[in-house]
C-alpha cells in the first residue's frame, strides 16, 4: 500500500473516531441526537427517558408510534415484555402491546428527560374464546331454590319462640359469624343462640334482601327503592352508609365499593368517606364487576367491556344482542351470560 493511501485511510479513521466517539459517549450517558426540521441547534443532543413495560401474560411485542421496538441500538432483536425501553426522545408516544390471541392494549404515554415512565400491571385479555354451554354445565346461572329457603325459614320460626308467635313475614335471613340476621319490612333483628340481641329500624319496604354476604358490613338492599344500606351491627351507630340509586355493586376490598346506576359507575372509599365517579355510559348498564387491581368489567344490553380505571381505556370484548344474566367467575377468569333473541342461549367467555 502506498504511503499516500495509508495517510488517507489514517485521516478517515481519525475522522470517524472524532465523529462517533462523542455520539457513543452521549448515548451511553443517556443522550441522543434529535434530528428535526427545521434544525434546532440548541436541541441536537437531548437527555432521553426510559419506559418500563410489564404485561400479564409476558411476551407482548411493543410498538411505539406504530413502529416495532428493537432491543437497542446494538441488538436488532425485537423487544418483548417485560422490558426496559431506554434512550427514548422525550415526547408523547402511542404505545401498542400485542400478543397472539389477545386483544391489543393501546395507551398514550409521555416520556420525560432523565426520568422513567411506567406501563405496569397491564392485563392482556384473550379474544375469540366464546363458547356456547348448557345451563346445567355451570353454577353461574343460579335459580333461587324457593323451597329450600322456605324450609329454612320454617326451622328458624320453630327455633325462635318470638318469631313463631309473630305474624310478620321474614323477607330474608343471613347466618354470619355465629349470628343470625333476620330482615323484616321495617327492621333488622339480630340473634345469637336463638336469643334476640338487638334490632335496627328501617323505612318500611317489602323488597329488602341481603347481598354481598362475605363483606365485613351487612349489605341490605332495598330493590324497590334502589337503596343500599351498609350496616356495622357491632357499632353504636350501626348504619355506616346509605347509597341511593343503586342497581349493581362490586366490592374492591373491605373499604372500597364500586356501584352503578343505569348510566353511571361510582366508587366510594368508606374509610375516607369519599365518592368519585368512574365513568358515564350512554347505554344502560346490566352489571358490573371489579376485576384485578385496576380493571372493571361492565355489561350493557349489547356489549361486554373492560375498563382500565386509572386511565379510562375501554376495551369492547364482546358484542351480542340482548345480553343478560351476566356473572363473573374470578377464579377461572370466565364471564358467563345469556343471549335472549328467539330462544335463551347461554355462553361462557374466557378472558
Quick synopsis:
The chain has 351 residues and is mainly beta. It folds into four domains: 1-46, no CATH class; 48-123, Immunoglobulin-like (Sandwich); 125-138 and 248-351, YVTN repeat-like/Quinoprotein amine dehydrogenase (Methylamine Dehydrogenase, Chain H), CATH 2.130.10.10; 160-246, Thrombin, subunit H. It is 13% helix and 48% strand.
What's the number of helices? 3
Record field, number of beta strands:
31
Under CATH at level 1, the class of the largest domain stands as: Mainly Beta
Helix content: 10-25%
- Globally, the shape reads elongated
Main β-sheet, spatial strand arrangement:
5-4-9-10
Question: Ends: how far apart?
Answer: 69 Å
**CATH fold naming of the largest domain:** Methylamine Dehydrogenase, Chain H
